[in-house]
Specification:
Number of strands: 10
Distance between the termini: 35 Å
Helix content: 10-25%
Mean pLDDT: 86
Strand order of the largest sheet: 1-2-3-4-5-6-7-8-9-10
Shape: globular
Radius of gyration: 16 Å
Strand content: over 45%
Structural class: mainly beta
Order of helices and strands: HHEEEEEEEEEE
Low-confidence stretches: 1-12
Number of helices: 2
């Protein structure tokens, strides 16, 4: 019975990230612009588990790829990000509140030890754009590291 409840919870929650963000986006600010492609993971998956596949940068030579999934035992979403330079981030978020996903976790730069946590918010705005904010938490202080906006440029893939 518990297994059925966990599976039902994963199914109910797992697609929320895709419902909000599936499609092709142009993300950027005054310093950069980049294409983001978000869709259901096409590879092998666990039955009943939804995994979102997030690829960013040039499709032929992406800057990175992330996988987003819901972990029912934690009641949290995971965003596991693998950058082309070898760095990684592993973030978690509770269910979104008022269209905002609040991701917190580690960023592990290649060749360096992580010395801080990362706070990232993705807010789905009423006009359909995404406002993202990036910050570091070092020694208990939150340090703003910038923001950008994403505009949908293509349908769900």
């Amino acid at each position: 019975m518990l297994h059925a409840f966990v599976l039902a919870s994963a199914l109910a929650h797992g697609g929320a990230f895709l419902r909000d963000f599936a499609g092709t986006w142009t993300c950027g600010n005054a310093r950069y612009h980049e294409t983001w492609r978000i869709g259901a993971h096409a590879g092998p998956t666990v039955p009943g588990v939804t995994i979102a596949d997030v690829a960013y940068g040039d499709a032929a030579h992406p800057d990175g790829r992330a996988f987003v999934y819901y972990e029912p035992s934690e009641g949290a979403y995971h965003y596991d990000d693998f950058h082309a330079d070898g760095s990684q981030s592993h973030l978690t978020s509770p269910a979104p509140r008022n269209g905002t996903w609040t991701w917190t976790g580690t960023y592990d730069p290649i060749g360096k030890s992580p010395d801080h946590t990362v706070d990232v918010t993705w807010s789905l705005l009423p006009n359909g754009t995404i406002a993202r904010r990036f910050a570091q938490r070092i020694a208990g202080r939150l340090i703003d590291r910038g923001s950008d906006r994403c505009t949908r440029t293509g349908a769900t893939r």
